[in-house]
Amino acid sequence: MKLMFSVVLLLLLSCSTSQASDVNITSIPPHVDGVIQTDFKGTVSLTCALKDGPHEDKELVWLRNGATVNLNDGNKESVSHVCIKPIYEDDEATFTCHLKSNASNEVTVTLNVTYHPELSGEEAVTVEEEAVLLLECDMRANPAITAVMWKLNGSMVDLTAGFTVTNDGITSQLNVKKVERSQHEGLYQCTTLSPMYGDKSKTFKVTVTDKTMKFPLMPTIAGLVVVFFTMLLAVVSRRKKIVKVGHLEQTQILLIRLLLHRYLKGLSLSTVLQKVIQRNLVLRYFIE
């Protein structure tokens, strides 16, 4: 019985030894159970080193979320260092180190990056009456914020006055589909609440201006071109009193209308004008 127990214990120890990693990761700040706590102000230093003992292969490989990290040639043998200045995308990122010859023999650490919403200062916003008003408030934070508040002139916005508030966990938006100066002009404030970072706010000074008339550019240009060539052909027809000119005038008008139609369908204005001039000269050559 004792012999059987000794054999089982020996097998367990052998299995445990085969699964142990030949590399070890140390970090500044130190990791606890494989998790490193940091923020945007700090820098994370990772060191991967081979454990004591004979090793045929000493080249180390780093992975970030499964993708290989590029290392200098002098930063691969036996000991390898990685320095990280945390950003948003580094939160919950995993860093893994292993021997190049044995990818299954690895050690992994995970970053937990804490940060507060980037809210501060005042932004001036100008919008016309009856236009759309859109204000955006950055609410990204770790740990997540507990609430977002929108105020107008010191009071909570009245959702019955045309306001719509939405958020996707990253950005909170205040939207007004049809602005009215009497209801929507003033000082807006977006405030996020966080148990770790407290309140963070940003102010928007919204000015509502009179509505201006807007003309569609392309149809306006096309109309001006039609008027110009119609007046030009009228002058030509008055100066030349022969039948051929009258026939030429009608042909030119039809040609111009056809080309303008093609312009509205996609041709550029310069191409249309060039074709008008070219075909105008050809018509005159054959008729006269």
From the structure above, extract its key features:
5-stranded mixed beta sheet, 16 strands, 5 helices, alpha+beta, 288 residues, disordered C terminus
Plain-language structure description:
- The structure is a single chain.
- This protein is of the alpha+beta class.
- It has five helices and 16 strands.
- The strands form four sheets. The protein has a five-stranded mixed sheet, with no helix packed on it.
- Strand 13 and strand 14 (171-176) form a beta hairpin.
- It is elongated, with a radius of gyration of 37 Å.
Which residue ranges are poorly predicted, with pLDDT under 50 across at least 5 consecutive positions?
1-19, 241-245, 281-288
Distance between the termini: 123 Å
The secondary-structure class comes to alpha+beta
**What order do the SSEs take from the amino end to the carboxyl end, as H and E?**
HEEEEEEEEEEEEEEHEEHHH
Approximate strand percentage: 35-45%
Please report the total strand number as a whole number: 16
- CA radius of gyration is 37 Å
Largest sheet: 5 strands, mixed
Please state the average pLDDT score. 79
Share of helix among residues? Answer: 25-40%
Q: How is the largest sheet built, in terms of strand order?
A: 2-8-7-4-5
Number of helices: 5
Question: How is this fold's topology laid out?
Answer:
Layout: H1 2-19, E1 23-28, E2 35-39, E3 44-50, E4 60-64, E5 67-68, E6 79-84, E7 94-99, E8 102-114, E9 122-128, E10 133-138, E11 147-152, E12 155-156, E13 163-167, E14 171-176, H2 181-184, E15 186-194, E16 198-209, H3 217-239, H4 243-264, H5 269-287
Helix pairs in contact: 3-4, 4-5
